[in-house]
Amino acid sequence: MAKFLDVVLSYPTLPYSVVLCFAVIYWMLAATGIVDDGGIGSGDGADFHSADDGATGLAAMFARLGLGGAPTMLVVLLLAFFGWTITYLIQLFFLQALPAPLRWGIGSAVAIAALVPGAAVSSWVLRPIRRLLMKLRPVEQESILGKAGQVSSPDVTAERGYAQVDDGGAGLILQVRSHDGRRYVRGDRIRLLDYVREHNHYLVVGDAELPVLNESISQVSDDKEIH
Prior knowledge:
By secondary structure, the protein is of the alpha+beta class. It has helices spanning 2-8, 13-32, 58-64, 72-93, 100-113, 115-136, 211-226; strands at 148-151, 155-156, 162-165, 172-178, 184-185, 189-196, 201-206. The strands form two sheets. A five-stranded mixed barrel has the order 1-3-4-7-6. It starts with a helix and ends with a helix.
């Protein structure tokens, strides 16, 4: 045990030991819900904190190394584990017998070089995990833009208002704003035109003001009834 700790806590194994401990603690906290693991279905459609193409920072680097499509911290865990294993074995059977200056020099090269086979093995391990994650990803929700609704607040203007929109389920109560500055009152039929993400509201227009769109919708309904 003493020899194991001596190798684990000495260079070049020590940096990998630190990162590996951090990654393990992170996933233990994620399993208990104390920290957000960026898991499937979280948040803003970024497909969890994954190393996908188009990402930035650490995730972008992983993507270029072929380690994309999985949570970033999972990639860190795998790289740290395989890097730790390689440096531990080399330290145990080779570097310990060398004098300190030589051990630090060769150890630095070993620590860096260990990333190459570590990345290759991690990529191989991630292949079935990627396929599993792809199956577990939530189905992208259909856009509600273009759907009709009814004003539920006293009125809808360019500054305020709510509307109820039928989404095929229990219905949605959404913040809406008049697209052209007109005022709509409770009970008026409106249609969603656009979503303003920074203000979390939808721009709407009166349903009666879209005769062409209404005519197209009616034609589609008639075709469905015929068939």
